[in-house]
Amino acid sequence: MTAAARVGVAECHRCRLFVEVLDHDRCGTRLAQLLARARQHWTSHSDRAVFGPRNHWDGITLDDAVRCPGDLVEAAAAGCGCGDQAEDLATVLMLLSGCPVVVEPVAGQPCFLLSLYGLADDDLGLAETLVQVFELDHSLRVVDRTSWTVPVAAR
Asked: Where on the phi/psi map is residue 54: left (φ > 0), alpha (ψ -120 to 50), or beta?
């Protein structure tokens, strides 16, 4: 049985945030704290292959930006994608909310685009709230937010 059939969904919510970095040092400090906690949570599970969000997204294909969302979540759990603040933020959001996140850099700017994906049972609200933590900390600012639905297909 495919994941799309298993969860009975035909669409996914996509939230796209245009994010500006206001304070790189403050953002880096907050990211380091959250990333350490998120990694600790995920590494406490001995078999990530059967751990919630990975299975939840397995077998689902979305749009061209994120063909295999389960692979994104698994890569984040395995420690991939770390380095710059945009990728670290995406990793934190994926590990703590279980929602796949895609980063799109904006050339020559201290800004980036974050695309957050959530099925009906996901906590897309948690992912957005985590971004607000950075806003309240005055390290990031969401310049623009758009959301829409994208169709879900089984692989």
From this structure: alpha
Supply the pLDDT for residue 89.
93
Contacts with 49 (C-beta within 8 Å, 6 or more apart), sequence order: 55, 74
One-letter amino acid identity for 15? C
What is the rounded CA–CA span in Å between residue 59 and residue 69? 9
Can you tell me whether residue 60 is helix, strand or coil?
Answer: strand
What are the residues whose beta carbons fall under 8 Å from the beta carbon of 18, sequence distance 6 or more?
A: 111, 113, 142, 143, 144, 145
Cα-to-chain-centroid distance, residue 58: 15
What's the whole-model pTM score? 0.83
Q: Which residues contact 60 (CB under 8 A, 6 or more apart)?
A: 2, 3, 4, 12, 68, 69, 70, 119, 152, 153, 154, 155
Is pLDDT above 70 for 49? Answer: no
Confidence of residue 5 (pLDDT cuts 50, 70, 90): very low
Residue 16's SS3 state is strand
Which residues make Cβ contacts (< 8 Å) with residue 101, sequence separation at least 6?
72, 89, 90, 91, 93, 94, 114, 115, 116, 117, 127
Q: Check whether 136 has a pLDDT greater than 70.
A: yes
